[in-house]
C-alpha cells in the first residue's frame, strides 16, 4: 500500500516544477476555509479522544483547531505562495570550453516525506512548503491528529483539483501503525528526502532506521555563557529572554554557564527574575553557594533539553572550560556568549560547533522567519545539506545542465 | 581502538581551521618524495602479494606506484595547497534588526572518513583535500594496498610534524577487517561525514550500514539518446567518445538509445567505429535487425554499469520513451541527448533526473577538473548536500554567526 502511494507521488512530482504551484497554493488555502466545518468537526473528535485518554491541557491546546487558527493557517499558505520560487535558481555557471557551457540550477528533490507529531497545522505548512519547492509531499502525522489530518489533506487535495494539479502531489500516510514509518524510511529510490519534526524519540527512530536521506531537526540543549568580561546588565536580559520568553521550544536556553570571576556578583542578580517566573535552578556546588535557592545538578541535568521552567547552572573557570562543556553536552543547535572582549567572542565563535553561535544576543533568534528566510520547515542540527533554520532553499537540490555543439572530451 | 582513533581525530580537528593548512600540504608533498624509497618498497610487497593471488594486470596497474606516479601525486598535493580556501567563505548575511547582525560562513565538518578501494593515490588525494577543508581525515583503504597506505600515511604525518600540525589530523584505519568499516559507519557524533569511493558492493555496504551522514558516490549507468532531430555526425562523435575514450570510468556511456525514425540510418553509421574498437553490442530486437553484429540484450543489460567494452542498444519511439527508460534504469549520474530540436532538448533537461544532463555533448565531461572545481573528491549521485562532481566546496558545512548588543527577542 505504502509503495503504491509513493509511486503515485513520484508520478505526480513529474512536471510539478513547470506547473502553476503558486496558483495551487492559493487554491489550497481557499479550500481549507471552504471545508472549515468538516475540518473543525474532525478535529473535535481528535481532541475529545485525547481528553478521554487524559492528555495534558498543554498538549490538547496544541492539537486544537478553531476558526481563528484555521484563518491563520490559510494565511500562512498564501504567504508561502508569495515567496520567491526556490526552483530554477542558477547557483553557478561557466564556459568549460569554446563550445561547452555549464549551469548548475536548483531543481526539486522529487518526493519529500515529513514525519511529525501532534500539531495539525504542520500538515498544512509541510504540504505548502513541499509543493512550493516542486516536490510531492508524503505526510505522516501522529495518531492523535489522524482525523484532523484526514480532513485537512482532503481539503488540500480539493485545492489541487481546482488548480488542475495532480492530487497525488499531497498524500497522507493514513495509518497510526509505526511500521509504515519504518517502511517509508527504507524506501530507497522511492523517497528522496525524509524530514522528521518532533521529540527526541521520534528523531532517534528516524535516524536509526533511515536508509533514505534524512535531515535531522530540532533537539536544542542550548547554553548561555556569561564571561568574566560580560556586561552584566546585558547578560541578565539575555538569560531571562533565552530561558523565559518561550521555555517549551528548541532554541530556549537549558544551561547557564558563568565565569567564576563574576559568578558571585552575577548569580544573585539574575536569580530573582528567574525564580519569580517559577524557574527551578539545578546548580553545581559552587553555583549553589551563590544562589539563594537551588537543587544539586546531576550529570543527567547537563544532558537534558528540559523544554520547561528548569535551568541548569554551572560555574566555570575560563571561556575554554565553557567551550568544552558545550562541546560535551550541547546538541549543536544554538549557543551564546555574553562578553565585551572581542578576542574571547571570536574564540567562542570559532570553537563552538553549533548551527548558530551568538555573541551578546539571545538564543531565541534561531528561527527561519527571524533569519529572513520567509518560511521554516524545521531547524537542522546536522551538518549535511542544511544547518540551522531551513527555508525553501534547503528543500531543493541541484542539477548541472551542460550544452555543447557535438562536443567531445579529448 | 577505532573509537580512540576517532577521538584523537576530533581533538586534532580543533583549531585546524586556524592552522597553516597550505603549509602543511606543501610539507606533506615534500615528505612523500623524501620517503619515496620506503613507499615504493612497501608498494612492491602489495603488488607482489596481489600478483600471487592472481589479480588481473589491469588491477595490478592501478595498485602499482613508481617514481613518476609519486611525483604526480606530490604535485597534486601542491596543486590543492594553491586552491582557494573553502573555509570562512561568507555564504549569506543580513541585518536582522537595528542591533543584530547575521552571517552564514563555511566551517569544517570536523572528522571526515573516506572508505575506498585499491588505488593508493586516493590515500594522498583524500588526505590533502580533507586537511585543506579544515577537517581531520580518517582513511580506510583496501586490504590489497595496506602496506602502501601505511608507508604513505607515515610520510604524510611526518609532513604534518614538520609543519607543526597535530599528526592525528591524518590517520589510517590500519586493518583489513571489514568490522572496522561497520564500526566507523555507526560512530554517531564521532564521525561527521563518510565518503565511500569504489564499486557497487562497497557503496551498498556503506549506505545500508551508515548511521552517520554519508555522501554516495559513483555508480554511473549513463545513457546517450540520439533523437530523431539529431545531427548524426555529432551523434557518432559523441557516442564513440562517451563509450570509447575511457570505458572503465563512471561517466562512460553504457546504453545507447536511438529514435526509431533515425535508427535505420544511424546504427549502421555508428557501428563500425565501435566494433573496430572491440565493443560488444547488446541490442533490443529492433536494433539487432539494423546492426551487422550484436547479441540479444537481456533485462539485466539495461541495469548494468559494464565499465568495459560493452554497449547496450535500444530503439525507442519517442524522446519520452527514452526519458522513461533512463528514469527506470539510470543511476542519476550523467545523461546525454543529441538533438537539434530546442523544445526536445529542454524537455530532456527538465525531465531527466540526474546529476548532469548534457545536450549535444559527451557524458565524459562529468569531472571536477573539467567543471572547473580545481579538485575532485568524488562524484555524488545523491541529492542531499552535493550532486555531481564534488570539489572543496562540498567538503565544508556552514555555521550562522549572530552578533548583538545585549539583544533579545520580543
Walkthrough of the structure:
The structure is a homodimer of 410-residue chains. The first copy, chain A, is an alpha/beta fold. Chain A folds into 2 domains: 2-216 and 382-403, Aldehyde Dehydrogenase, Chain A, domain 1 (3-Layer(aba) Sandwich); 222-365, Aldehyde Dehydrogenase, Chain A, domain 2 (3-Layer(aba) Sandwich). The first copy, chain A, contains 15 helices and 16 strands. The first copy, chain A, has helices spanning 2-13, 21-34, 36-52, 57-63, 67-81, 121-132, 146-162, 178-186, 200-209, 232-244, 260-276, 285-290, 299-303, 319-329, 342-351, and strands at 90-97, 100-108, 111-116, 136-140, 170-172, 193-197, 222-226, 253-259, 280-283, 295-296, 310-316, 334-338, 356-361, 378-380, 388-390, 396-407. In chain A, the strands form 4 sheets. A 7-stranded parallel beta sheet of chain A has the order 10-9-11-8-7-12-13, sandwiched between helices. In chain A, α2 runs antiparallel to α5 and α3 (36-52) packs antiparallel against α7 (146-162). Chain A is globular. The mean pLDDT of chain A is 95. The interface between A and B is large, with 69 and 69 residues.
Amino acid at each position: 500500500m505504502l509503495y503504491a502511494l509513493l509511486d503515485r507521488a513520484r508520478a505526480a512530482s513529474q512536471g510539478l516544477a513547470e506547473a502553476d504551484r503558486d496558483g495551487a497554493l492559493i487554491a489550497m488555502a481557499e479550500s481549507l476555509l471552504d471545508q472549515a466545518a468538516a475540518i473543525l468537526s474532525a478535529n473535535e473528535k481528535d481532541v475529545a479522544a485525547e481528553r478521554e485518554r487524559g492528555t495534558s491541557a498543554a498538549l490538547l491546546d496544541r492539537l486544537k483547531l478553531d476558526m481563528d487558527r484555521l484563518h491563520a493557517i490559510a494565511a500562512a499558505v498564501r504567504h508561502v505562495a508569495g515567496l520567491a520560487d526556490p526552483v530554477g535558481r542558477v547557483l553557478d555557471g561557466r564556459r568549460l570550453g569554446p563550445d561547452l557551457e555549464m549551469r548548475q540550477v536548483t531543481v526539486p528533490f522529487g518526493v519529500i516525506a515529513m514525519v511529525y507529531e501532534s500539531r495539525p497545522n504542520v500538515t498544512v505548512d509541510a504540504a505548502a512548503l513541499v509543493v512550493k519547492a516542486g516536490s510531492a509531499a508524503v505526510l505522516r502525522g501522529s495518531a492523535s491528529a489522524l482525523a484532523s489530518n484526514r480532513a485537512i489533506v482532503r481539503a488540500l487535495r480539493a485545492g489541487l483539483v481546482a488548480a488542475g494539479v495532480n492530487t497525488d502531489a499531497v498524500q497522507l500516510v493514513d495509518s497510526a501503525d509505526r511500521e509504515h514509518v519504518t517502511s517509508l524510511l527504507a524506501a530507497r529510490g522511492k523517497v528522496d528526502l525524509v524530514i522528521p519534526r518532533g521529540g527526541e524519540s521520534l528523531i532517534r527512530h528516524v535516524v536509526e532506521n533511515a536508509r533514505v536521506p534524512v535531515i535531522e531537526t530540532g533537539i536544542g540543549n542550548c547554553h548561555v555563557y556569561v564571561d568574566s568580561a560580560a556586561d552584566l546588565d546585558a547578560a541578565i536580559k539575555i538569560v531571562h529572554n533565552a530561558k523565559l520568553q518561550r521555555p517549551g521550544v528548541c532554541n530556549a536556553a537549558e544551561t547557564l554557564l558563568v565565569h567564576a570571576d563574576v559568578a558571585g556578583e552575577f548569580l544573585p542578580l539574575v536569580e530573582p527574575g528567574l525564580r519569580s517566573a517559577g524557574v527551578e535552578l539545578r546548580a553545581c556546588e559552587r553555583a549553589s553557594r551563590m544562589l539563594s535557592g537551588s537543587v544539586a545538578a546531576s550529570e543527567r541535568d547537563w544532558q537534558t533539553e528540559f523544554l520547561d521552567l528548569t535551568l541548569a547552572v554551572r560555574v566555570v573557570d575560563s571561556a575554554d572550560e565553557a567551550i568544552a562543556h558545550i562541546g560535551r553536552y550541547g546538541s549543536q543547535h544554538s549557543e551564546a556568549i555574553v562578553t565585551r572582549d572581542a578576542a574571547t567572542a571570536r574564540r567562542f565563535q570559532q570553537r563552538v560547533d553549533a548551527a548558530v553561535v551568538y555573541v551578546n544576543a539571545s538564543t531565541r533568534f534561531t528561527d527561519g522567519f527571524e533569519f529572513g528566510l520567509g518560511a521554516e520547515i524545521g531547524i537542522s542540527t546536522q551538518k549535511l545539506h542544511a544547518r540551522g533554520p531551513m527555508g525553501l532553499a534547503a528543500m531543493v537540490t541541484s542539477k548541472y545542465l551542460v550544452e555543447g555543439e557535438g562536443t567531445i572530451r579529448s
